[in-house]
Amino acid sequence: MCGVFGIFNSKTPAEDTFYGLYSLQHRGQEAAGIVVADYSKARKKTIFKQHKGMGLVSEVFRDETVFDTLSGYAAIGHNRYSTTGSAKSTNNIQPFSLIYRSGSLAIAHNGNLTNARKLRNELTELGVIFQASSDTEIIPHLAARSREKEPVQQIYEALQQVQGAYSMVLLANNQMIAARDPYGFRPLALGKKTDPLTGELAYVIASETCAFDIIQAEYIRDIEPGEILLIDHLAVANEKPTSLFLPPSERKARCIFEYVYFARPDSFIFGNSVDKVRRNLGKNLARESSIEQTPGEKELTVVSVPDSSNTAALGFVRESNRAGRPARFEHGLIRNHYVGRTFIQPGIQSRDIKVRSKYNIVRGVLQDRPIILIDDSIVRGTTARMLIKLIREADPKAIHLHISSPPITNPCFYGMDFPTKRQLLTHMFDSIENEVDEIEKIREYIGVDTLTYLSMPGLINSVPSFEGESCSYCTACFSGDYPIQVNEATTDKEEND
Amino acid sequence: MCGVFGIFNSKTPAEDTFYGLYSLQHRGQEAAGIVVADYSKARKKTIFKQHKGMGLVSEVFRDETVFDTLSGYAAIGHNRYSTTGSAKSTNNIQPFSLIYRSGSLAIAHNGNLTNARKLRNELTELGVIFQASSDTEIIPHLAARSREKEPVQQIYEALQQVQGAYSMVLLANNQMIAARDPYGFRPLALGKKTDPLTGELAYVIASETCAFDIIQAEYIRDIEPGEILLIDHLAVANEKPTSLFLPPSERKARCIFEYVYFARPDSFIFGNSVDKVRRNLGKNLARESSIEQTPGEKELTVVSVPDSSNTAALGFVRESNRAGRPARFEHGLIRNHYVGRTFIQPGIQSRDIKVRSKYNIVRGVLQDRPIILIDDSIVRGTTARMLIKLIREADPKAIHLHISSPPITNPCFYGMDFPTKRQLLTHMFDSIENEVDEIEKIREYIGVDTLTYLSMPGLINSVPSFEGESCSYCTACFSGDYPIQVNEATTDKEEND
Amino acid sequence: MCGVFGIFNSKTPAEDTFYGLYSLQHRGQEAAGIVVADYSKARKKTIFKQHKGMGLVSEVFRDETVFDTLSGYAAIGHNRYSTTGSAKSTNNIQPFSLIYRSGSLAIAHNGNLTNARKLRNELTELGVIFQASSDTEIIPHLAARSREKEPVQQIYEALQQVQGAYSMVLLANNQMIAARDPYGFRPLALGKKTDPLTGELAYVIASETCAFDIIQAEYIRDIEPGEILLIDHLAVANEKPTSLFLPPSERKARCIFEYVYFARPDSFIFGNSVDKVRRNLGKNLARESSIEQTPGEKELTVVSVPDSSNTAALGFVRESNRAGRPARFEHGLIRNHYVGRTFIQPGIQSRDIKVRSKYNIVRGVLQDRPIILIDDSIVRGTTARMLIKLIREADPKAIHLHISSPPITNPCFYGMDFPTKRQLLTHMFDSIENEVDEIEKIREYIGVDTLTYLSMPGLINSVPSFEGESCSYCTACFSGDYPIQVNEATTDKEEND
Amino acid sequence: MCGVFGIFNSKTPAEDTFYGLYSLQHRGQEAAGIVVADYSKARKKTIFKQHKGMGLVSEVFRDETVFDTLSGYAAIGHNRYSTTGSAKSTNNIQPFSLIYRSGSLAIAHNGNLTNARKLRNELTELGVIFQASSDTEIIPHLAARSREKEPVQQIYEALQQVQGAYSMVLLANNQMIAARDPYGFRPLALGKKTDPLTGELAYVIASETCAFDIIQAEYIRDIEPGEILLIDHLAVANEKPTSLFLPPSERKARCIFEYVYFARPDSFIFGNSVDKVRRNLGKNLARESSIEQTPGEKELTVVSVPDSSNTAALGFVRESNRAGRPARFEHGLIRNHYVGRTFIQPGIQSRDIKVRSKYNIVRGVLQDRPIILIDDSIVRGTTARMLIKLIREADPKAIHLHISSPPITNPCFYGMDFPTKRQLLTHMFDSIENEVDEIEKIREYIGVDTLTYLSMPGLINSVPSFEGESCSYCTACFSGDYPIQVNEATTDKEEND
Which cofactor does it need (chains A, B, C, D) (predicted)? Predict the structure, then answer.
């Protein structure tokens, strides 16, 4: 996963992009970069400038003087997710910028192409060379080979050839282009900002609307699935970007896991509030929960794994109370504010120091009480297990773990950085055919008293529906129902963006 | 303010101290350091090794290889608070280590001496030289001039001469010493850890118990006000540290603001759970609140400023519900996880970017509703004002700001890094004699619909009482009632620790 | 200009390359990189690993742990010259590594292609995209488009299409390839090293033989002009690399300026000792010099600009003595050992601080004496002027500046990082048709008493001759006689390697 | 050893000091620091600002913005020598700055006190604490205990109590003080600079005059042995600093090794040109040499170990020629320009890589010839041995090693960073009573054909004599004749400055 951001017609595009990326930091912590488009009087054309590096946005741009070298009128930026295990090459840091037939191009991409291997093979057979192992490079290569003259047409042609998930923003000479795949896997939003001094209009593109909030830009609408949006100085003057549309897909496939876990709760994605959806997840989880008040307890004590499950926990409490099962929300776990990517773990004394460095327990809340612990999902199960071990130190009477989504049973081929199937916790118990038995085994492994997953209908019921669409979401990680056939050869998932 | 940590008889004292400081990071972000005591076979005595630097613990110790140079059997560490405005000299980074008559000494100190200026003047008159502007150096100077032979006796003698607030941990050759002033201003706790492999006992000292949790040490008890605790290899063998006691003060003066804001909620300080006290503050605030449910709203919507006010907000909701005024807790503000000391703010476009970088609003929660916003305290008022401006963007019907402590009216001379009196928000309206009118002015300045402070009785009622003590807490910042007469010359507060 | 290095069949290829690049540091100080070929058991093929960065080799590889990640059996490396004025993009740091039809390819290139613009245009028309502005990328693109199967054949085909100066080393999967253009502009040498423990043979490629000396490798021979040398495990086993040869050019064009200034005196280039050639330059300069002993002086005092002109000065002295004009070599200028790329010049108080930071005068040597100052060349003249100003502070009776090469009158299009024609000192006096008058103007500008340049015949007489070659050297910068017609469009020289 | 610098009444004291330290870099590479005196309008007095760090001057001050924080009117600076083996504590970085009875004091010190241990013991007995293990701290402690009111008088009183070698510069509030011990062990010079714009006079103090040259300051005179010089704004106005004099010592003891090796050849120290003295050393070495021309060789080939022995080699050649034994100077060894403190040696493949990284041979010069190799001194012998091994690779007919100083037989207690007696090469053969036999053993160990040391009379004859002084130099390292009795307890030489 990754975060993308773009702004056009700003006096401070690099600074705006810095803040945008900063607010999208949760979408990728491994590397960050900004490419700026500036008009060069000497060369009488737009030139690109860039700064990229490994680490958090605030680390890569730690030296403030770098902004002096990044003046211009437009910029795009990218946060890269930490890809585990693979060689962490600086070649892979986006945005990629390059020179081709029609001038300069820069691209920041979030997603995963499902026919990447096939296209790569075809292109290499034609003599194309690749700098990096990422899918992203395929797109400019296809665009460069297009016979079209206009970059936006080249991109259009290129995107007709790729399959899979992508939300991207590009700079093409003096234009900014935003594009989203026809399935609409990944979010991408359009906003605008009016300069408080000059009244000039800037257009903004971002993975999530929290990036608009930080620079006081205003959300206009989502980039539609299949839309290719062109912003140039004319579009600014007319206050009207123009759009092309890729042939529609037979269904839509918005990533439901963005709502479950990935996006920030203060963002709007797919046109809806993440916070609201998570609240629904919690409510439905409460409806499905069978945990009853223990005699002697006035209420159910509901504890969330902060901060990702806070909203679901509030929803759970609300619905529980509404339904006559008194419950209260509690902060039983404290999240350390200073956890960051640069955190080292010298002399790892015990294997759970990583969990201890991130969380601590509030004894008074947990001790001698049965607690309902709300978490959003379980991927590998290792963190959950350590966390339960940590909570046990506070001597709760019981831990009833409630997961606000169904079991993850399948890898993602559309950009979510899940492990391979073999590494998923559910895989450990694949041989068990009975689902009830399987969950019992997981419960045992994690070390909780009871384990409740939200049902698939409960999940679907929590997310907004889109009129006129037969199928709006991708639930493949829960259901195995992959919207796009995946080339088996791609499934080793060497690298996602 | 600062955080201190010490461990004795560990195989990995520097690593343990790293984790301890890491969990005490909230007590000081400006600088960090570790001094290790190791036995040198070559010199046949204990030698000290150190590593110190500006920045967060994780930054100062970013290079893992530094731990290779910090082997030993005991260590102390220190987090320094960011002192605003003053020259940020590396001379001031603690622990201070030095060589004197009886060997080597290292000191990590949290607090502020009220007779520092007088002692400093006396000492300089005697020819003493100071490296740094901090109070802390006075103590080893006094110890070095003692005629006692044992370091612990020298420290005892030194501490009889100083007045004010201090909680400190020292290494003196092959001993670790912990000391707390007779008033007990700052917290200091004793713990122990049993090595899982060897079964060996290590003693641990920390400002807050969250530092025990992270290394799986166990809380034993607080260092008592006036106690000087000596830990050496004999103490470990006997499982019995020895103590000296300074002459008792006429009253105690535990810092009530540690409970209100400073300490981590998962810590125990002064022998009690911070979380529990904050909950009480919220409950009492609810009792004192006059905000009624708005017609058309089923419940009061209670929003906290995360994360410091979360617990108080939960207490508020609980008491409110108990008292028949239905309320619910909501996450209306999201705190950015990636805020850190190294955060830069290029091209500050608007003055509120700092607040926007830290918080964002959850529109769905705030919009069109009257909200009760819980914050722990207001110092200068600038952040509060910006935050309210930010919340207003979500169009709440009303903002009822509730502060879970009384107005701060006086500076702290015992180590809390408050500004001078002139910089306190309350000072702005000093000329207004009527307290009601003053709060009305503050309300207007902050920009909220109503403003409620917890009363002083409400505050006192929230904190644990200590048997046999006439006065247990320092409330000077709220009440002006200073437990120790402060030398007027000191009140410019050039530097606290 | 740049330095290249490669080693095949070493146990420590990255370390060897580090030392090789370190000894070639004078060929490029802006950036450095190493790509290693390692056999991956997991993937059952050779994979590439890399580390690159801006700065000196010792800075880029300052963190020793980087070598832990660079294990393998072969490596190539590159030092990039500081290109003045242009945007210093990290995209341009070599070796470039990439993935194409036949696997992995990495390239380190020293030189400049004269038909780069044309090829680039043709390639971009075909849809090729470029990452960087350097010429180097063209070569792998051409190779990737070849229909040949073997990388070495692809390179062969590619090099048939490019014109200009190049000496390069490549990794192609499990092979190392070295290539030099048919004119032989830039040096490139082949060496070997026998592992002292295992007796195993490693082949080494380097721009200059000083890179062999540092790792105790042995010089075998030069890579011939037009030769493409293939080294693989078979070549090692047979102790016999194989070669292909490009069609020969009508003449050779070894860069004579490498001998004059660029190469290290302890290197062999073009099969001959640089030191010896420089000595000849000095001798011929002495023969051409008209400076006579001043009455009252026993000898001529000959001072060199250290360290580049030391050998020429020694040759001058030797020939002078032989010819009966007593002369002695003196160190009248001291070169600061600590000058490096990272040197900052805060608050530039006077414009000559840069010269003062690099050199200082030895008064006793210079004072009250006429001195013959030997320098290798004058490019822009600014440094020379400052240096003369500095020497004047020692009050020499006269400064007779002798340059051990003719005036530089033309830019270099084959890789030497000269400025454009307009920036050359000689250009300043272009309007003066009489050469004698022109040199008089230059003398005046530099501020010396007399100015003597080595004549073109004196230059040619100093360098080794190659049997059977009508023309062996490129002297274009002195003579304007360009061996390869230069596309006018290329002459803006945006970027050399 | 160390370098010190100070400037008073400059507009850019930190920048000047930076350049001064930069040119004194050879006197200490481990750490560097600058303390600036600035007038604070707010506090109505002079305040000190500082920046210090480990590494070369150019590394410590790599971030140019640090100079923005170092404005003022005066500054002192210090380069610390690399002390091998001991813990490299940042506590030891000079200048030390401190606060005491009379205000602020900062000190930069070059030398070694011989009664340091005694004074330290006395002071610690009185309750003094030390931050660092260096001698330097003793001086401000003694000054602080003085009953004098004026800092210069306090320093005077302090220096009457210390014995040993010191050349130092201090800032005391708004004054700069320079002091040199009565024996005059270490050099210290006074200079002045006139601001080119304002015509204002600045006084400058430096270890060597090369630091004056770089900032275009002018040498006035040496600080006399025993002189304490006071520079303040009055001194500037009157163009007349004032001096106090310590009681004279019975003899002088200028460090003769400064002339032999340590100082830069372009400096004047002890009022005389270092270059000239080294030339004399070479001449006397020639007079004492018994190496005759080999039949078949026209001349003796004289090669120096660059750059320290260049001048001696030139003197050798000159005298040799004068005496009718034709000789010529050759550059047979090339010194790498990029060697610096930050140099890493990954995977040390062979033990001599350190020597190879610093030097390379010029084969053509060395091959098949007997050479006279001039080096200034041999301390441990390890580098010399490796260097000879390297030279042997060029197959010289013979290596006649000539050392331009006598054998080093004794450690230095006055600041030169020699090893202990046990680590000196000569100690290896202590049991051999016959000096001739001992030198034969050393010759064998080093691996040369013949070995010639300059005789003690030859040494003495080379250095300038001072009228009216019975004894002017310290030759203890060669002769064992220690000018100041050394407390045996001090001889373990834990730390020099």
Answer: [4Fe-4S] cluster; Mg(2+)
Catalytic residue among D2, D60, D168, D384: D2
Mean of all residue pLDDT scores within chain D: 91
Kindly list the structural domains of chain C, giving each domain's residue range(s) and its CATH number in brackets, ordered by start.
3-249 (3.60.20.10), 274-468 (3.40.50.2020)
* Side-chain-side CA neighbours of residue D240 (13 Å): 1
Q: Which residues of B are annotated as a binding site for Mg(2+)?
A: 308, 375-376
Question: What count of Cα atoms within 13 Å lies in the side-chain half-sphere of residue D93?
Answer: 22
Q: Which of C12, C16, C267, C349 to mutate to test the interface with D (most CBs of D within 10 A)?
A: C349
Is the model's pTM score more than 0.80? yes
Binding site as annotated, residues of B:
255, 308, 375-376, 412, 474, 477
Among candidates B90, B127, B140 on the partner chain, residue whose Cβ is nearest the Cβ of D144: B127
DSSP B261-280: IIS-TT-EETTEEHHHHHHH
Residues B138-177 as b/e (b if ≥16 CB within 10 A, e otherwise) read: bbbbbbbbbeeeebbbbbbebbebbbbbbbbbbbbbbbbb
Facing residues of B201 across strands? B194
**CA dist., res. C56 & res. C342, Å (int):** 9
Contact between C258 and C278 (Cβ < 8 Å) = no
Q: Active-site residue among A1, A2, A236, A281?
A: A2
- Residue A170 is classified by DSSP as E
Selected residue of D12, D60, D360, D368 to mutate for chain C interface (largest C Cβ count, 10 A): D360
What tokens appear for C277 in the block?
């050639």
Closest to D338 (Cα-Cα) out of A277, C27, C122, A23: C27
Q: pLDDT tens-digit profile of A142-168?
A: 999 999 999 999 999 999 999 999 999
CA distances to B452, C94, C99, C109, C410 from C135, in Å: 70, 12, 18, 9, 21
pLDDT digits (tens, 9 = 90+) for A184-202: 999 999 999 999 889 999 9
| C356 contacts in chain D (CB < 8 Å) | 19, 213-214, 216
Q: How close A151 comes to chain B (CA, Å)?
A: 32
* A89 confidence band (pLDDT: 50, 70, 90): low
Calculate Rg over the CA atoms of chain D.
23
Give the pLDDT band (50/70/90) at residue A346: low
Average pLDDT of every residue of chain A: 91
User: How distant, in Å, are the alpha carbons of A331, B310, B314, B491, D232 from that of B329?
Assistant: 11, 9, 6, 41, 68
For residue B487, with 0-12 CB atoms within 10 Å meaning exposed, 13-18 middle and 19 or more buried, which class applies? Answer: middle
CA distance A356 to chain B (A): 5
Number of Cβ pairs closer than 8 Å across B and D? 72
Q: Who among C49, C98, C129 is closest to A98 (CB)?
A: C129
- Say what the ipTM of the complex is: 0.90
The pLDDT assigned to D417 comes to: 79
pLDDT band at D52 (very low <50, low <70, confident <90, very high): very high
CB contact under 8 A, D128 and B50: no
- Active-site positions of C read 2
Nearest to B334 among A215, A264, A364 (CB): A264
Does the annotation mark D471 as catalytic?
A: no
Per DSSP (E only), the strands in B392-439 are 398-403
Find residue C255's DSSP bridge partners.
C474
Evaluate whether D495 touches D278 at the Cβ level (below 8 Å).
no
